[in-house]
Structure formats: structure tokens, C-alpha cells
Amino acid sequence: MTGASLVCGPQQKAGEGLTKMHPNVLQHFNAGRRGVWEDVPDEKWQSWHWQQQNRLRCLEQLEQVVRLTESERYAIQADQKFRMSITPYYAALMDVEDASCPIRLQAIPAKEELHILEEELEDPLGEERDMPVPGITHRYPDRVLFYTTHNCPVYCRFCTRKRKVSDPESARIDHAYFENAIQYIAQHEEIRDVVISGGDPLSFSDGQLDWLLSRLRDIPHLQVLRLGSRNPVTLPFRITDEFVEMLRKYQPVYLNTHFNHPKECTLEAFRACQKLVEAGCVVRNQMVLLRGINDDPATVLKLNHLLLLMRVAPYYIYQCDLAEGISHFRTKVDVGLNILEHLWGHTSGMAIPHFVIDIPGGGGKIPLLPQYVVARQDGRTILRNYKHQTYTYLEPAEELVPLPSSLDPTKS
Fold first, then answer.
1. Active site residue 386
2. pTM summary value
């Protein structure tokens, strides 16, 4: 790698107008591999339309990319609960031989998905309960979730919306659906923030998104637009120059994504995030804590350091939800607390996200922290730091202590 230009693939340079990155930054990122698609021309490989059209959806296609285990092969054939879909770009990141590859675990069905535990829920976050009109979940006072599509480039195996995503029969989404949802937001002046989610809203064309964002921006009390998308991870070619130019019209726009492992931080993903940031977007990451993928402090620390180089803020670590068939991904809560314990004090606060549990049944997000308050007594708070050293903080008195007369200018 030479010079400071951002190279994202064979014979591909950064788009015109993008900041040139120093080679000391770029050395941390590798271009995604092609695998069995090595002979696909660049103009096709780097086309998000081609990637969508050539997603892997069946056993025969996947067998050409990786050497499947009997367990994987059984799950792909037996899985009727949640369809499979993997972009060639994301599939090419998989380890051909290793079934414990973090990309394979996130994208290829596992036989454990067929085992539904009693405590698992079809709608683990109670989104339908707080849905005044189809598509709108209004749980918090000033913000709503707007479910816009069933489609995603990759159907993640840990998805909390398995009841909807990939299943067009779960709800009828047509023009009336969008009009009713937009009308609800317009009629409720307390709403200042909307999360446009799915599925993945970036599955829409630029024109469709332009229409939707325009309609939302026309609502006077709506201040913040948020897009929830995993495209920067699974289909970074979707972040085109034309797309980000369209987004410029509607700032402030926040984009929340899901990088879950350092292996996903490729040059292609770097370039996608660079375009979003330089178009004015605030890009934040919401890592899902997943057993065997990112449930150790070293992996999370490396991921968050790479994200900061990509100008993506580590925002949340999500405890895995109680969705049906994903118990094999869930860790104990102490695992997340242990990760935070190994981040605080050991790295910059910018690299430390909030660890939250989205309470089953619609209770909302609850933040969790390791216990740093040792004791509180007699106007003193005893605290510990990341080295487990204790310190005393003196609380202020209930009433201000009067100044000595010699220091009180009103008594001179």
C-alpha cells in the first residue's frame, strides 16, 4: 500500500472529494476478498444492485463458497423459521474451512435456531404492543421507531425481528401504510426524533428514500432523522456518491449500524463510513453481544479502536434479546459487565459504549455499569477506579458553609 489515497478494491480509489487518509491509518484495514467471485468485473462486484441480485439463498449456492459442516447443512435445509440471504461481499469474508468464523456464525443458519425455549418471545421487545398505527412503535415520549421494510441484504441469525424480516406476509407495506405512519408522526408534536428501521431501509432505492426523508423533513416539529442500517457492514457498496449527496439535503441525519467483529472492518466498509461522515452524517455503532463472536474484551477493544479510525462512534453494546431460536448467541449479563470493566481506564472514553439490555416485553433500554461506588456514608462517597484502588469524594454540605467574615466583602 503506497501513498495516502484510500484504496478499496482492485483498481478502485476513493471517490472525488473524500479526505485522503494517512497510510498509518489505512494500514489497519484490508480490502475484502473475492473468493469464488474473483472473475466478476469490478463494475459488477462494486454494484449494490448486483450484490443484492446475487445473494446466496440456498444450500447449493453456499456450498460453492465454504466447506459446510453437517450441522450447517442440516440447519439450512430444515430452517423454515427464518430465510437465509447473504451478499457475495459478506460471504467472501467467511473462512472457507472454519465453522467458528465470526462471519459464518452471523450469517449461516445453525441447528440451534430450531430449538425454541419457553422464555423466548416472537416479539421480544413488545414493539407490537406500543404500535398505535401499523409500522410505528411509540414507546418513548419524544421519539418513534418507523418500521419500513422486510428486506435486508443479509438476514442476520441473531435478528430480534425474525417474525417480520424476510417475511412479506407478516404485514402489508404499501403506500397507505407509509401515509398513515407519516400522518401519525405529523399529528404528534411531542415527536422530535424518528428511527427509520426495518429490515434495512437502505434496501430502498435512492428515489424512494428521498421521498420518505422529504416527507419527514416537512414535519415542523421533527428534528432528528435516524437510519438504522447494516449496509455499511454487509453491503458497503450501497453507500454511493449519489446516495450521500441525497442525504446532504436532510441533515442532521444519524446512521446507526452494527459492526460486531473486527473482521467486518474492511477498506470497503471504511470508505462507506467515510462517505457518510463527510456528507454530514453522524455514524454510530450498536454492537450486539454474541457468544463466540465478540464476548471477550480483546475483540471488543480492537473493534472499537478500528471504528474510531473509521470515524464511527461506539454507541451501544446490546445484550442479545430473547428472540426465538437465538439462545445459543446469548451470554450472561456478567460477560458484558466484564467487557466494560476491561475497557474503562484501559482506553479512551470514546472507545467505551453504553452496555444496555432492552427489557423483554417493552420495558425499554436499561444501562448497566460495573459497580464503582464502594460505599456512601457521613457525607463521603467511597469510589474505586479501574485498578481497584479506592478514593474518597466529599459530598457538599446540605447548606453552604458561610464565609469567614474576613473573606466576606459584604461585611467589610
1. no
2. 0.91
